[in-house]
Structures are given as structure tokens and as C-alpha cells.
Specification:
This protein is about 60% helix and about 5% strand. It is built from 26 helices and 4 strands. Strand 3 and strand 4 form a beta hairpin. It has about 650 residues and is mainly alpha-helical.
């Protein structure tokens, strides 16, 4: 573990902070209003109502503010400062009211998302959502400035972190519901896969291990330790995994940095790292490996670190191909950051333990990966789906599936960290060997993430770069806090205040992409639809017919539909994967089962009546589904029931 060091953040100058705040807010507000005008307003300018004309006028004023804020005379800045001081004087004697005010502003931040009603389309613009975050952060910053006696730029940035955290946590609320059907396309597929660990008790038979990585189902399966667990408990458990494990990862990193900066810094760092990990979509079951490395790997005790590395690598091997080497790379990252090279001539001795760690970690990961493929009985489908999936290189650039595209999205989220790391390398902070090895490992994870992202089925966000995000987080935070061990006597220059602002704000901005909603559904309609579906499939099962749930299979898992034997083949996620990679052996078996009318009923989501345009959101994936599932299904089966409120279609064999 590294020695304890003191650290202070170079907060931006208040004047500089206000300039950037007004500029960014004005630009984003103008973009948002013109975007809404394009999407929501009438086609003809003459048809615009007074409200739209006022909004567009305010956007033009916003642009003028952006320009003028950089040319304000000194007298105007003195006037702004006097107004701020007047507000602080008003708030300071009322210290007891600061906490209620902060709570009130937090509620105010959430209200437009939940209660705008017919005007909810206003927050449909991502730019407007960022503006709303900035405006409320500006107001909350005044309260923090008075209450905590912080510099205003610090108070503003901490307010943004607070609201960013509230936004992330509020985003989980819609998931806490007893709604019996799937909340999203594949939400409940993971619950079904998690049930495999208790398949004999739940289904009366043993089912092969999960087709996709075993990690996420393994963590979710703990909920099935409760007999007859309801789906709301499973959903609460998943939220607890997301929040709990991500919080633990953030806290362990802060602990690893070992700063003497007080409880306040520690708390805010944990909040920021929590938000950052979720911005990078680092799944909780993958963070388990990060946790093992942060807890157990210690360059000063290299032999004692090996068991932790082996366990993490074994888990990585059975989870994902690109995470098979990740525990080893993260362990080596800690070694190179914390251990200096005593002399360039000693490089062979220096690399002795990293070499042993590399061989042991990679060997453990590779062995567990191959072993899982064999033991799970999924060797063929795993190899096909991971190796032969086609590339969609257009996903690297802005597209309908991901508005930023992988390249721009990566630069936006990683930009501040890459700048800090690049500056460190230019200053030769760690020396050539250590910096080169760290950069090479980062490049490997970045390249692997790009490849995974452009495979069909990916590229709608940055989650396939998750291992890269973790390495970048560790490297940048070590440099920022001075927790690394420089190669020689080193006096780093403080980072610019503007960089600190972007470093803190960008993960908050990134998570605001999620549009917040409240949980809720029409209980009467849902129960009626569930009862109709239940009666339909139970009647077919009572006549000895097989009922295939391609979609909504979890209804059997959670006991919403009983007396219907499970058909383990052709689950939604697996069938989709096999269709995307055009696994003809697998698909031919499926087509044969359709042509021979093996199933008395088939439950799917509502199928399109036409081929999807490849340029639409996930257009290539939908196109693959159309040819491999929809066409053969409609040639051999016909619709007997449609539940449009739940997006369900039931099919029976053609006469």
C-alpha cells in the first residue's frame, strides 16, 4: 500500500468558473431549444405560437450572453460579486435553513421529470437536461458557499456532483416495481438465466448453464435462495447490486489512494467515482474483479497477491473474453504506479514479479474460460458468437443507435483523464519504461473495447470499453492525487482549474442522458392481460402441447404462469445472438422445429410486418431477426393473440 499523502484540489477561479458556466449553459440551451423547435414545433415559421417564438428568442439571447460574458467590464464583475455577497449575507444567519433549502432544490430538480405532464417533451432534449442540472447546481452552489464557507467554484461543482448522484439514484426508481412483465427488451432474460442455479427446484429439471457470461446471473441468483421469490424482490436486489458494489469499488479506490484530505474529500471522491463507473457502464459483476484486485494486490507483497489475482482471473475467464486478461492488467497497473524502477539497468529484476503475475493471471483466466465453455455444454455457441459476429464499423461514428458514436463518446468521457495522463507522460513522471507499459496495457483494453463495440449487437453505449474505463480511472486518480511513486524527485505543476471542472462535470453530464420517469402501470389492464395469456398457454399445455416462451419466459420462473413445462431452447437473448452471427447449425434446428410445428404455441414480442431499415436504431440487428426469426415464424405459424399494452404476440401452427 502507498504512503499517506496530503492533497488539495486546485479549484477554478470564481470569475473563470462563471464565464465557463454561462458559456456552456448558453450554448447548450440554444442547441436544446433549436432541437426541440425542429422536432416538436410546426413545419412553417408562420405557424409558430407566441410561446415558441419566446423560446427561440431566449435561445438567441443565450447565444449573445455567451459572447458578452467574455467581454464584461470590471465594473460588471464587481456588481455580480456584490449581488453574490448580498445573497450570502442573507443566507449566513439562516444556517439552520440551508439543509431544507438543499433538499427543496433536489426535489425541484426532479419535479420536471416526473410532473411536467403534457410538457414533458421539453426534457426530451439531452442539452436541456444538462442545462437544468447546471441551473440547479448554480443555485445549490450559493447555499453550499454560505453553509460550508467554500469557494464558490468548489460549491458549484460539489452541487453538480450531488445532483448528478440524485439523478443516477432516481434512475433506478422505475425498476422497483411488481410489474409482472419485462420492463425492457431483455431485462428479465437475466433473471431467467439466474434461475438456472436453482433450476431443479424451480422447473423440476436441470438446465444447462447460462449461454451468456455466468457472472451477472451468478450474482442475481442469490435472490432465488428465497423460495417463490416475487419479481419485485429480484429487481430490488439488482438495484442493490448496482449501487452497493459500485459504491464499494469507489470507496476501495479512495482507500487505496490513502489521502490525508479529510472525510469531506473522501466522501465527494467516492460520489464522483461512483458516478464515473456508472457513466462507463461498468457492470457490477465485472466490478467484483476490480474489488478483488484493489483489496488483495500489493506490490510490496507480491507472493501474497497471487491468490487474489488468480481468483479474479478465474472469474474473468468465465465472464467475458475481454475481461479474461483484465485482472492481470489492473494488478500490473497498480505495480507500475506504486513501484519505482531503481535504475534503468535493473529492468530485468524490476519486471520479475510482473512477469510472474502475467503468466499466472493470464493462464488462470484462459484456463477458466475454456473450462467453462466445455463444462457448460455451450462450447459451440460461445465460440461462434464471440468470434464470427460481423463488424459494424459505422458504430464508431455518430449514428441512430448511439448519437455520439464510440469514438466521439470515448473522447468526451475520457478526455480530461487522457489529458492528465498525457501531460504526466510528457513530464516523464514515471519514466519511460513504466509509462510505456501502462500506455500499452491501456491501448490493449481500448482496442479490445472498440472491437467488442463494433460487433453486431453492441455499440449503443460505451459499456464494452468497461475495462479501459477502470484502468483509466485508476491511472488518472493516482496522478491527480499524487498517490503514484514518481521515478525521480518530481514537483508537478498544478492542473488548471478549468480542467478540474470538466473532470468533475463530464460524468455527471453523461448520466443525464437517462430520462427519469416514475414507476407505475395500470394494474387492472396488466392483470387482465396476464390472465388472458395465462389461460391461453395453460389450455395448450393441458392438451400436451409444448409452449415456447421466446419472450417473457420469466413468467414461468416467478410463478405467474404455472402448469406449463419450461422449454429451455430458443430464449430471446440466445436466439437473437445466433441470428446476428448467422449460426446455421443452431438456426436450422430452430427452423426445423417451426416447420414440423413442434410447439403448440409460441410467445414473442410483437413482430414487425416489414423489414427494418438498417440505418434505424439497432437496424442491422433487427434486420437479422427479421430474416432468421420473423420470416420463418410467419411462414409456419399465425397470430392467435396480441396484447399490445405488454408488447406480446402469441402464435399457433398454421393448419
Amino acid at each position: 500500500m502507498i504512503k499517506e499523502k496530503s492533497f488539495s484540489i486546485p479549484w477554478p477561479d470564481n470569475k473563470q468558473m462563471i464565464r465557463w458556466l454561462v458559456s456552456v449553459t448558453g450554448i447548450l440551451y440554444s442547441i436544446g431549444i433549436f432541437e426541440l423547435a425542429h422536432d416538436q414545433a410546426p413545419a412553417s415559421i408562420a405557424d409558430y405560437g407566441l410561446s415558441w417564438k419566446l423560446l427561440i428568442g431566449s435561445a438567441i439571447i443565450g447565444i449573445l450572453l455567451v459572447v458578452s460574458i467574455w467581454f464584461l467590464p470590471k465594473r460588471c464583475w464587481e456588481w455580480i460579486k456584490s449581488i453574490k455577497n448580498s445573497i450570502l449575507k442573507l443566507l449566513h444567519p439562516l444556517a439552520w435553513i440551508n439543509l431544507p433549502l438543499l433538499i427543496g432544490l433536489t426535489i425541484l430538480y426532479l419535479l420536471p421529470y416526473w410532473f411536467l405532464g403534457e410538457y414533458s417533451w421539453i426534457l426530451g432534449s439531452y442539452a436541456i437536461r444538462i442545462v437544468w442540472l447546471l441551473v440547479l447546481s448554480f443555485l445549490s452552489g450559493l447555499i453550499f458557499n454560505s453553509w460550508r464557507n467554500w469557494k464558490y467554484s468548489q460549491a458549484f461543482l460539489m452541487s453538480a456532483l450531488m445532483l448528478g448522484l440524485i439523478h443516477v439514484l432516481a434512475g433506478y426508481l422505475p425498476n422497483i416495481t411488481d410489474y409482472p412483465f419485462s420492463l425492457s427488451w431483455s431485462e428479465t432474460s437475466w433473471y431467467y438465466y439466474a434461475s438456472f442455479f436453482f433450476s431443479h427446484r424451480i422447473y423440476g429439471s436441470t438446465i444447462l448453464w447460462p449461454f451468456l457470461d455466468i457472472g451477472r446471473p451468478f450474482f442475481l441468483s442469490a435472490a432465488f435462495a428465497i423460495p417463490n421469490v416475487p419479481i419485485i424482490i429480484m429487481r430490488i436486489w439488482q438495484v442493490c447490486l448496482w449501487v452497493g458494489i459500485t459504491s464499494l469499488s469507489a470507496w476501495l479506490l479512495q482507500r487505496r489512494l490513502n489521502q490525508r484530505s479529510g472525510l469531506t474529500f473522501s466522501l465527494w471522491f467516492v460520489i464522483w467515482a461512483f458516478i464515473y463507473l456508472l457513466a462507463g457502464s461498468v457492470y457490477y459483476h465485472l466490478q467484483f474483479m476490480v474489488i478483488l484486485v484493489l483489496i488483495g494486490v500489493n506490490p510490496r507483497r507480491p507472493l501474497a497477491s497471487l491468490p487474489w489475482l488468480i481468483i479474479a482471473s478465474i472469474f474473468g475467464g468465465i465472464v467475458r473474453i475481454n475481461w479474461m486478461p483484465t485482472p492481470t492488467i489492473l494488478a500490473l497497473t497498480l505495480y507500475f504506479l506504486e513501484t519505482p524502477l531503481s535504475s534503468p539497468k535493473e529492468w530485468v529484476k524490476y519486471l520479475k514479479w510482473p512477469t510472474l503475475w502475467g503468466i499466472t493471471g493470464l493462464g488462470s483466466g484462459l484456463g477458466s474460460m475454456i473450462g467453462y465453455w466445455v463444462v457448460s455444454g455451450r462450447l459451440d455457441t460461445h465460440l461462434v458468437s464471440k468470434i464470427t459476429a460481423p463488424f459494424l464499423w459505422g458504430r464508431l461514428f455518430p449514428n441512430t443507435t448511439f448519437m455520439f458514436g464510440i469514438l466521439i463518446g470515448t473522447l468526451l468521457l475520457a478526455g480530461p483523464m487522457l489529458w492528465l495522463i498525457g501531460r504526466s507522460i510528457m513530464q516523464n513522471r514515471l519514466g519511460g519504461l513504466r509509462s510505456s507499459l501502462l500506455a500499452a496495457m491501456a491501448a490493449i483494453l481500448l482496442g479490445g473495447g472498440f472491437i467488442a463495440s463494433v460487433k453486431i449487437g453492441g455499440g449503443n453505449n460505451l459499456h464494452n470499453l468497461d475495462a479501459f474505463w477502470v484502468l483509466l480511472l485508476i491511472w488518472a486518480c493516482y496522478i491527480l492525487t499524487g498517490a503514484d511513486t514518481p521515478q525521480k524527485s518530481f514537483s508537478p505543476k498544478p492542473v488548471p482549474g478549468a480542467w478540474v471542472a470538466f473532470f468533475i462535470l463530464i460524468p455527471c453530464f453523461w448520466n443525464v442522458q437517462q430520462l427519469l420517469t416514475l414507476p407505475g402501470y395500470d394494474y387492472t389492464i396488466v392483470q387482465s392481460d396476464l390472465q388472458t395469456l395465462r389461460q391461453t398457454v395453460q389450455q395448450a399445455a393441458s392438451q400436451g402441447e409444448e409452449v415456447l416462451f421466446i419472450y417473457q419466459r420469466h413468467l414461468i420462473t416467478f410463478g405467474e404462469i404455472t402448469n406449463v413445462p419450461i422449454v429451455p431452447e430458443y430464449e430471446l437473448e440466445e436466439l437473437t445472438e445466433m441470428g446476428m452471427v448467422n449460426n446455421l447449425d443452431y438456426l436450422q434446428t430452430f427452423w426445423d422445429d417451426l416447420s414440423t410445428h413442434r410447439f403448440g404455441l409460441i410467445i414473442t414480442d410483437i413482430q414487425r410486418e416489414y423489414r427494418e431499415t438498417p440505418t434505424n436504431d439497432f437496424g442491422q440487428e433487427a434486420d437479422a431477426w427479421w430474416f432468421t426469426v420473423t420470416v420463418p415464424l410467419t411462414e409456419n405459424y399465425h397470430e392467435v393473440l396480441r396484447l399490445p399494452n405488454e408488447g406480446i404476440q402469441v402464435w399457433a401452427p398454421n393448419p
